[in-house]
Amino acid sequence: MQGLMMDRPLLISSIAEHAETFHPESEIVSVTADNPRHRYTYKACFSRAKQLANALSALGLQQGDRLATLAWNDYRHMEAYYGISGAGYVCHTINPRLFPEQLIYIINHAEDRVLFVDPMFLPLIEKIQSEVSSLEHIVVMCGPESLPENTLGAVDYETFIGAHSAEYTWPDFDERSAAALCYTSGTTGNPKGVLYSHRSTVLHAITGLMPDVLNISRADAILPVVPLFHVNAWGIPYCAPMVGAKLVMPGPKMGDGEALYELLDSEAVSLALGVPTVWLALLDYTARNNLKLDKLQRTVVGGAAVPASMVEQFRDDHDVVLHQGWGMTEMSPLGTLNKLLPKHESLSDEEKVKIQIKAGRGIYGVEMKIVDDDGNEQPRDGVAYGALMVRGPWICSDYYKLEGSAGTHVDGWFHTGDVATIDPDGFMAITDRTKDVIKSGGEWISSIDLENTAVGHPAVAEAAVIGVAHPKWTERPLLIVVVKEGEQTNKDEILAYLDGKIAKWWTPDDVVFVDELPHTATGKIKKTTLREQFADYQLPA
C-alpha cells in the first residue's frame, strides 16, 4: 500500500518561488567590480533570474546543456544559479584560480555552451579561446559601461537579460535531472566532475537548515566567504532563500581581512562560513587593529583542519563560536558539523576545544563508517582508525563521464580518501588523507595533528608536514613552516613548543622554513608539490 501524498518534484525553482512569496523583502548585499555595495531584495533577484531564463531560452539551448560561470560571490552569480538550473540547464561553476590547462580540460569535458564570466577573468578566457571548442556565447557579469574591450564578441550581462521579460513560468521536470556541475580540484590527474541533481540539492539544503547543522533562520545575516564557484558555496545559496535569511556577498574581497571585517560589522553578519586561511587573515587584521567582531555570533569552518588556536582566538577575543565542518565536493558538500553535546557544557574550555577541533558528528542523510584494508568495519571507539566511507542521497554515485572507471565507489559506498576515527559519541576526526599519512616503523603519524599543533605557536602562520625517506624507519616527518610577518623563530623553539603536546615519537626529525606554501585552487596545502620539492631531502643524522 502506498501513501496518499501529492508527488511534487523537488526542484531548485521551488526555492525561488517560495522566497518570492514569503521572503520578498529579504536583502542580498553584494560587493562587485562595478558597485562597491549593491543592495536589493529576493523579489528583485528572482525576477531577474526569470529574465535570465528567458534570455537563455532565446539561444535555443536544450535541457541538460551545461552553462558555465567563472565569477566571484555576488548578486549576478546568484541569479545565474537559479536562472540556469531553474530553466532546466546545468549550472557549471568553475574555479578561476585553476591553471589554464585545467580550465581548458574542464570546459571541453563539460562541453559548456555558454560562459558567464567576471570582467577580471576575460583576459584568461581570451588566452584559451582557441582551445575551447564548445563555447558559443560569452556573457560578462557587468553593465555595458563596465564591459572591457575584448576579442571574444562578449556581451555584458545587463544587456543580455535587459530586453527580456520577467514573466516566466519555471518548468516542471524530473527532480533527478542534473542541476549543477562542479569539478574537483584535481591534485592528481585530471579534475573529476560531480553532477548534482535538483533532488539532491534541495534535500541537502533542507538538512543544512537544521539546528544541529548550520542552524539558519530568517533572523540571520549570512556571509558566505566560501566561493559560489566551489561546491555550491556549501549550500548557502539554497539554504538562505528557503528561510529568508539576509545574504552578504563579498565579491572579489574574499581574502581581504579589512574588507571582510567592514562587511561583517556594517551588515551585522551573524553567521560567516569559509576556509581556515580566510579566517587567519581576518583574525590577524582584528588583532593588529585592536578590533572585535561584536556582531558575529558563529562561524563555520571547513576545507581544512582547524587548529585549536583558531577556536580559542574566536572564543577569547570575539565571543564567537567556531563550528568545524567536514565534507567534499562529492558530498554536496555537508557531511559532519561539530556542535558540542549538552553533556559537554560542564567541561573546561581546554577539554571543549579538544572536541571542537574534531570534524564533527554525522548529520541526517549521511551514513559513514571506517574500514581496514580488507574492508572490515572498525569500532567507533575513538581509537581505531580506518578508511572513511560514506553514502547518502546527496553523495555522488559516480563521476561525470567516468562511469565506473574512477575506482572510488564500492558496494554503494564512496571511498572519501580520508583516514579517520569515530568516537562513541559519533564525533569523527580526520587523521590524514590516505595519500598523506606518514608510516614510520609500521606506525601511523597524523600529519594533520602535527600541523595543527605547530600552527598554535605564536610565530607560525602556516605549517605542513610530509614524510621523508629514512633508512631505519621507512619515513619520518618533516615540518615545513611559514613564519608570520614581523615574527622570528627557529627550529629549536618550534620543537620545544611541540614537546609535551604530541607523542614523543611523532616529533619531526627536522624543521624547514619557507616564504610560502603551495596551495591548490581551493586553498588547501598542495602536498604533492611539497613531496616533489623535498624528494631528495636528507634528514639530519
How many beta strands in the DSSP annotation?
26
What would you report as the Rg, rounded to the nearest angstrom? 23 Å
Low-pLDDT stretches are none
Q: Beta-sheet strand percentage?
A: 15-25%
The helix-and-strand class reads alpha/beta
Task: Provide a descriptive summary of the structure in words.
- This protein has 541 residues and is an alpha/beta fold.
- It is built from 15 helices and 26 strands.
- The strands form four sheets. Strands 1, 2, 10, 11, 12, 13, 14, 15, 16, 17, 18, 19, 20 and 21 form a 14-stranded mixed β-sheet that branches. Strands 7-6-5-3-4-8-9 form a seven-stranded mixed β-sheet, sandwiched between helices.
- The longest helix has 16 residues, at 42-57.
- The termini are far apart.
Quick structural overview:
This protein has 15 helices and 26 strands. The radius of gyration is 23 Å and the shape is globular.
Give me some keywords for this one.
alpha/beta, 541 residues, globular, seven-stranded mixed β-sheet, 14-stranded mixed β-sheet
SSE order and pairing:
Elements: H1 12-22, E1 27-32, E2 35-41, H2 42-57, E3 66-70, H3 75-86, E4 90-93, H4 100-110, E5 114-117, H5 122-128, E6 137-140, E7 155-156, H6 157-162, E8 178-183, E9 193-197, H7 198-208, E10 221-224, H8 236-243, E11 246-249, H9 257-266, E12 271-274, H10 276-288, E13 298-301, H11 308-318, E14 321-327, E15 334-337, H12 349-356, E16 360-362, E17 367-371, E18 386-391, E19 409-410, E20 413-422, E21 427-433, E22 438-440, E23 443-445, H13 447-455, E24 460-470, E25 474-483, H14 491-498, E26 510-513, H15 527-533
Parallel strand pairs: 1-11, 3-4, 3-5, 4-8, 5-6, 6-7, 10-11, 10-12, 12-13, 13-14, 25-26
Antiparallel strand pairs: 1-2, 8-9, 14-15, 15-16, 16-21, 17-18, 18-20, 19-20, 20-21, 22-23, 24-25
Helix pairs in contact: 1-3, 1-8, 2-3, 7-8, 9-10
